Amino acid sequence: MEDMDKDKATHAEMGHDMQPRVPRAQIVLVTLLTLGMLAAGILIAGWFGDFSMHAGTVMEGHTMPGTSSSSMAGMAGSSMGGHEMQPVDVSQAPTAPIFARGNQPLEFTLVNGVKEYHLTPQVVLWSILPTVQVGAYSYNGTVPGPMLRLTVGDRVRFVVKNELPEPTSIHWHGLQIDNSQDGAADVTQKPIEPGETFTYEWTVPPTPGTYFYHTHFNGDRQQALGLYGLLEIEPQNPVPTVDVDVPILLQEWTVINGGTFPAMDFAGMQPNFFTINGKSYPETETINVKVGQKVRLRLVGSGQFIHPMHLHGQPFRIVATDGNPVPEGAQLLKDTVLVGPGERYDVEFVARAPGKWLFHCHINHHITNDGVEEQGGGGLTMIVNIQE
Ligand SMILES: [Cu+2]
After folding, report:
1. Cα(303) to centroid of ligand 1, in Å?
2. What residues make up the domain containing 255?
3. Are 224 and 326 in the same domain?
4. What is the CATH number of the domain that holds 108?
5. Does residue 377 lie in a domain region?
């Protein structure tokens, strides 16, 4: 008995007794204080924090936290990395016809044995979809600019009249020509000022293949706004080896509240529209071929993002990289090829089976138009229509 009493006393001293030693009034007071502080915290966060849903945050019923046009809207007009983020000024820009297409062969005039071409960098309102116009920087009013199909050994001249509101230059990407004609602004030449004309002249090098030309002044803005075009070098006596030859020039666009901004990954300006040859699916061209015909796709990384381009229904063979033919034994057979900025891949396949086969980027956001799919795709999607 004594032992048990002793135990009880010890428990009580150690505070393990079930009877509360704190007065009830004090417990109520502390509880009320705690609840009051919680309520104050919620109210203060509500006043000073931003928990509201902005217009544009909800797209097609999906909330888009921190992506796409909603979060970028706040950046528009602000200064980032030294760039003033203003939309392209289209107040003076002509509107390209809705049916206009880029990659059109550029005519030349022969002047004393030199093939003379005219390229005019200019702002244009360009339709990437029937309902979406972008403020583009273009060569001769189209995106991409005109196609230059040049022949090995030809002497060529390019008269460049800058009608942009800012300086520019043209770089002939991948070509082995004289350094003075390389078009690197502030390195091999002075930038071409607005209203000025600059003339490039060189001999087409003996390296047939797929190349492109693009601005080399403020390229992060200018090229991302459309200043690029296809440049093909052909041998002197070209022998057709394919039935259908399709250039595929890729680009990304950032369109916020109808204003066009250059898509800049590292400045947080994520693109929300994507184009093949200046058009978003379903406005991209359809490749019509018959079973057994040979198709060549000339993929050009003319944008600023990497695109894993994928063909449904059959693989393709990579026959040239960056304008250089791949020896037959080394040609990879693949159905997806990563096309990075500046890269070119010529891929070929023989149409296998009838049907509408997709060719598209496999970053699936890149096959939407502002986050929305139309007719089974969007952006970097096109159809290879194989018939019997
Ligand atoms: Cu992509």
Report:
1. 10
2. 241-388
3. no
4. 2.60.40.420
5. yes
246 C-alpha to ligand 1 centroid (Å):
18
Quote the ligand 1 centre to 248 CA distance (angstroms). 13
User: What pLDDT, in 10s, does the model give residues 340-379?
Assistant: 999 999 999 999 999 999 999 999 999 999 999 999 999 9
**Ligand 1 midpoint to CA 39 (Å):** 47
247-282 per-position pLDDT tens digit = 999 999 999 999 999 998 778 889 999 999 999 999
The pLDDT, as a whole number, for residue 146 is 98
Does 16 map to a domain? no
- Between the CA of 102 and the centroid of ligand 1 the distance, in Å, is 20
| Domain shared by 282 and 311, yes or no | yes
State the distance from the centre of ligand 1 to the C-alpha of 199, rounded, in angstroms.
Answer: 35
Contact assessment for residue 172 and residue 182, using Cβ atoms and an 8 Å cutoff:
yes
For residues 49 and 137, which has the higher predicted lDDT (pLDDT)? 137
Report how far ligand 1's centroid is from the alpha carbon of 146 (Å): 23
- Measured in angstroms, how far is the CA atom of residue 386 from the centroid of ligand 1? 24
Residue 326 CA to ligand 1 centre (angstroms): 24
Q: How far is the CA of 380 from the centre of ligand 1 (A)?
A: 7
Using the mean position of ligand 1's atoms as its centre, give its distance from the Cα of residue 89 in Å: 27
Task: Name the domain count of the chain.
Answer: 2
Is the pTM of the predicted complex or chain greater than 0.85? Answer: no
